[in-house]
Amino acid sequence: SDQHALQPAIDMRDKACRWNNSRAMFIGLGGLGGQALNLVRKLAKLDCDNRLDVDDHAWAVIDTDTVALNVLTSDEQEQCLPSRYAFELRILHPSEYRDADPELFCPLSRRWLYNIPRSLKTEGVRPLAILSLLDHYRQLRNRLSKDLSDLIQQHEQDADGQEPLHIYLLSSMHGGTGGALLSEIGFMIRRIMTELGFSHYRSCAIASVAATANNSSANLYSAAAISTLSELTYLMDRDNEVAPLHFGDKLHAVSSHKPFDWVTLVEGGMHGLQSDADNTVAQLANVAWLDAQSALGCAMAESRLEASQQAVDSNAWLRSADYRPL
C-alpha cells in the first residue's frame, strides 16, 4: 500500500522517546584527525541541550608531528586543545633505537630504523608511524587504559545512560600517521576493553578519502589510502586472525578479531587544497558528534551491526556519510 511504501527505513518515533545519549571517547589520529577532534570538542561545548558536558567524554589526540600538536594546544588558538589530551609519538634519531629490545621492532624491516628523515616526521611514509608506535606502545596503552577505565566507571554510575559507550577514531586515510595507526589503535582498544572486562561498547572509525592529483608527490598519499583500505578489508573479515603488532600483547585474548564494529568514510575533496581540508575536518567532526549524541546515530548503529552480522557481503562493515547543515 501507499501508506506502507512511505514508512521510513528506520522508525525513529519509539527510539526518540526512550533514548538517552551515552558517554563517548573520541580519538584523533594524525594532523587531520587532531583538528577534527578539536572541532568535536567545540561542538560539545555548543550543544546546550545535551545532558552531558564536554568533560563527561574522553578525548585524545595521537600524532607523530610535534609541530602539529603544539599548534593544537597553543594558547594562541581560539579553541585550543588542553595539552593533557595530546599524546606525542615522537620519532627519534636512528642512533636512539640501537639499544632497543630486538623483539620490539620485529614487525618492521630493520631498514626503517635507518631511513628516518632529518625532519623526524613520517613525511607520508606509513612504516615510520608504526616504528614510533612500537617505541611508545606501552606508554600509550597505559594512557588509553586509564582513560577508558575512568570513562567506564562514569558510565556505570550514570543511571540514565543505557546506551553502549561509543569509541570513535577520526583520521584521514592519506596521512603517514593517521592511516597507518587506524587499525592498530583499534586493536589496542579491543585488548584494553577485554582486560577491563567491559563489552557494552561500540568502536567505530570515521575516516576521510580524497581525490589526488596525478603526480609523484600525490601518488604517495594515494598509495597510503589504498594501503589503509586494503588493510581494513582484510582485518574486518571475521575469518581472518591477525597476530598482535607488539610482542607484549601476544598473550592477551580479545573478544573480537576485528578492529572496529564498522567504518564510516567521508568525502575529503581534493587532497592538498586547504579549503577542502577545512571542509573535511568539519565533515569528520559533525558526523562523529551526530553519530555519538543523537537518537538517529543510535538507531543507525543498530542497523549497521545487524547488517554487518547478517550480510553475505563481506564489506557490510563499510559505510559512507555526508553532513549538510539545513
Can you walk through the features of this model?
The protein has 326 residues and is α/β, with parallel strands linked by helices. 43% of the residues lie in helices and 14% in strands. It contains 10 helices and 7 strands. It has helices at residues 2-5, 13-18, 30-46, 66-73, 126-135, 137-156, 178-195, 216-235, 274-293, 295-310, and strands at residues 24-29, 58-63, 86-88, 165-172, 201-211, 262-270, 318-321. The chain has a 7-stranded parallel sheet with strand order 3-2-1-4-5-6-7, with helices on both faces. α5 runs parallel beside α7, α6 (137-156) packs across α7 and α7 (178-195) packs parallel to α8. The radius of gyration is 20 Å and the shape is globular. The two termini are 31 Å apart.
Radius of gyration computed on alpha carbons:
20 Å
| CA(first)-CA(last) distance | 31 Å
Decide which structural class fits the backbone: alpha/beta
Number of strands: 7
For the sheet with most strands, the description reads: 7 strands, parallel
Question: Helical segment tally?
Answer: 10
Q: Describe the global form.
A: globular
User: Reading side by side through the largest sheet, how are the strands ordered?
Assistant: 3-2-1-4-5-6-7
Low-pLDDT runs of 5+ residues are none
* Oligomeric state of shown chains: single chain
User: What is the helix content?
Assistant: 40-55%
What is the string of helix and strand elements? HHEHEHEHHEHEHEHHE
Round the mean pLDDT to the nearest integer and report it: 87
Beta content comes to: 5-15%
